[in-house]
């Protein structure tokens, strides 16, 4: 089966990034969100990412213009998904929410449609159980920021067919990603490592081992990370990081217990770049502000 039309559910950092990659890869893309302003913001971000790609020499202006023309939005789930070949769900890491969306998609989509979840930690088997097409359900985990990160983890559920995995891999490669197939286990591969590193960085910050800036600098220069773990946590969203850790703590045990300081930041509404303030502070364009004093 050839994939031509992709619907992306959710317009957060991951959803709009996946939409960008799909459009650049030549697919017809429909982006769905319940809020029109969220879809408008997503299109603005995608347009900015395309312009950045042209500036960096990654795309020609013609390719960027063509990719933007391939994207449309729809606030109605039925309209967005009714003729999709592949739907990629990229909503919050809340199992009931994901299963509810998959249940609706199973009723809306044609029989051939593949349903993929962008979950970074959760069971595609459990998510697929909300449908009658578990053989055509799979996890396609992209990495943030999607326009720049090359990896896509493909995780098969208990009943995912070989054909579905093959198609998911082909789609990921057409989006410019390198795919790895991972056995289903909470957190998969980079997610488990990243959760540990990020959580330990929060503990070091809480214990006063070093400033947030110096912890990130030490990890980047000492271990070769392209981005410090605390800056990455702000980019992902501290609320998202907390939910992931809570799930991994529940499923994998004590070593994933969330740092109390992380919980405190989330309770204070300091969610990272998206709220303008997290571990670091940001301006209206999302640029990190210099440390005060």
Topology:
Blueprint: E1 5-9, H1 13-24, E2 28-32, H2 36-55, H3 61-69, E3 71-74, H4 77-81, E4 86-89, H5 95-108, E5 114-117, H6 124-128, E6 137-142, E7 151-156, H7 162-174, E8 178-182, H8 190-207, H9 212-223, H10 229-236, H11 238-252, H12 260-267
Parallel strand pairs: 1-2, 1-4, 2-3, 4-5, 5-6, 7-8
Antiparallel strand pairs: 6-7
Helix pairs in contact: 1-2, 2-3, 8-10
Site (Important for catalytic activity): 141
Family: Belongs to the 3-hydroxyacyl-CoA dehydrogenase family.
GO molecular function: NAD+ binding; oxidoreductase activity, acting on the CH-OH group of donors, NAD or NADP as acceptor
Give a quick summary of the entry.
47% of the residues lie in helices and 13% in strands. With 293 residues, it is α/β, with parallel strands linked by helices.
Task: Please give a handful of descriptors for the protein shown.
single chain; about 290 residues; alpha/beta; Rossmann fold; N-(1-d-carboxylethyl)-l-norvaline Dehydrogenase, domain 2; eight-stranded mixed β-sheet; about 45% helix; about 15% strand; 3-OHacyl-CoA_DH; oxidoreductase; NAD(P)-bd_dom_sf; NAD+ binding
Account of the 3D structure:
The chain is of the alpha/beta class and 293 residues long. The mean pLDDT is 95. Helix 7 (162-174) links the parallel strand 7 and strand 8. The protein has helices spanning 13-24, 36-55, 61-69, 77-81, 95-108, 124-128, 162-174, 190-207, 212-223, 229-236, 238-252, 260-267, and strands at 5-9, 28-32, 71-74, 86-89, 114-117, 137-142, 151-156, 178-182. The protein is globular and about 55 Å long. Strands 3-2-1-4-5-6-7-8 form an eight-stranded mixed beta sheet, sandwiched between helices. The termini are far apart. The chain has two domains: 5-183, 3-Layer(aba) Sandwich (Rossmann fold); 190-275, Orthogonal Bundle (N-(1-d-carboxylethyl)-l-norvaline Dehydrogenase, domain 2), CATH 1.10.1040.
